[in-house]
Design a protein that fits this description.
The chain is α/β, with parallel strands linked by helices. The protein has 13 helices and 21 strands. The strands form 5 sheets. Strands 1, 2, 3, 4, 5, 6 and 16 form a 7-stranded mixed beta sheet that branches. The chain has a 5-stranded antiparallel beta sheet with strand order 17-18-21-20-19, with helices on both faces. A 4-stranded parallel beta sheet has the order 10-9-8-14, with helices on one face.
Amino acid sequence: MSRFDFDLITLGAGSGGVRASRMAGKYGAKVAVIESSRIGGTCVMRGCVPKKLLVMGAHFGEALDDALGFGWSVEGATHDWSKLIAAKDKELDRLEVAYRNLLSNAGNTLVEGRGVLADAHTVEVNGKRLTAAKILIATGGWPVVPDIPGRELMITSNEALDLQQRPQRIVIFGGGYIALEFAGIFRALGSEVHLVFRADQVLRGFDADVRAHMQSELAKKGMTLYAGRKIISVAKAASEYTVVLDNGTTLAADAVMCATGRAPNTSGLGLKETGVRMNERGAVVVDGWSGTTVQNIFALGDVTDRINLTPVAINEGRMFAETQFNKNPMRMEYNLVASAVFSQPPVCVVGLSEEDARKTHDVAIFRTSFRPMVHTLSGRDQRTMMKLVVDKKSDRVLGCHMVGDDAPEIIQGLAVALKAGATKAQFDATVGIHPTAAEEFVTMREPINTPTPGGETA
């Protein structure tokens, strides 16, 4: 008989923790899953899923406007924010039940409460001590709010998903994917949006052409952009918020949202005391097998701050379970992982940006910008941008970038091609589907002349 209560204790019932625990249970392990919040974690309860539902709901506003160009007469259309939130909440309730069932069906024991490491094999939760041969840290990340006067008055993405009323005026601090996604939601539903970000362009870390094109599209949506600025204070009088920027500009709003980043959720878990090493951001340091500096303690997902995407965490969970409980060692590959920003319009990328590619390759750049067919009749001033980064020596496609409708759906297929080592010649030999936006990826024949990123073709 084992000297431990469980074979595995998992801290966190998010996407990665649930996948690892379910599969470990399937392979015969006795597993306890500890969660202090809703079952499903960030993606299902506070991130990808509810946010995408709001994005889809917001998109109908522009669709109604576009319909006029196609002969539709839409009169008296209004939006009820409370109904959208209620529908979202109903879906999250359904998903939480589904996740509970997934754990139960795998034979996992769910313990609801906050788990803290007491030693390398022991977790304290709800005043009790549970022991395990192995412990998995999968506690995800949490929004970071800068230390400025009035920081307690700002909401984060967590609260933005549960607002009972849509603010007529909102200031959003941040220029990353979360800021852009919520800016698009609120703007499309009729809010006045002020986007404040510290960099000169939005989407720091993305390809320069993507950043320039997206910033132009945001301005077309009617958002007010404050590039190179930061919020230095927030105050509230009655129901109105006053936001002061570092250049003295004062903004009035009904809500102020902070989307300046997320940090690994490791505070107060007893990790350092147990000997688990963390980096300067508080992320758990792991090796290629998700192992920490303590032999029997592992970590995966956003808490490790590797690639903070749900499918990555799910795959890390699968490979952890295969390796530790099925005698089938597997390691995650982190190259060519596609990512999407569900902004309006959406952004999607797989592979290297032009800037990163130029550090190690002699590259050819193929880029196009065009007005999508739908907007030739809708009249909307929106352009799609596509870009390929190609290694001149091998002809291999190193990166695909797109800003425009359906970008995530299109790039997913190209991610398979890049994973298979596709060359530009193979792209060129592929017959496009006409008329679609996607065909542009296989009809860009001539590289652009300028080596400087950030430009745009006509």
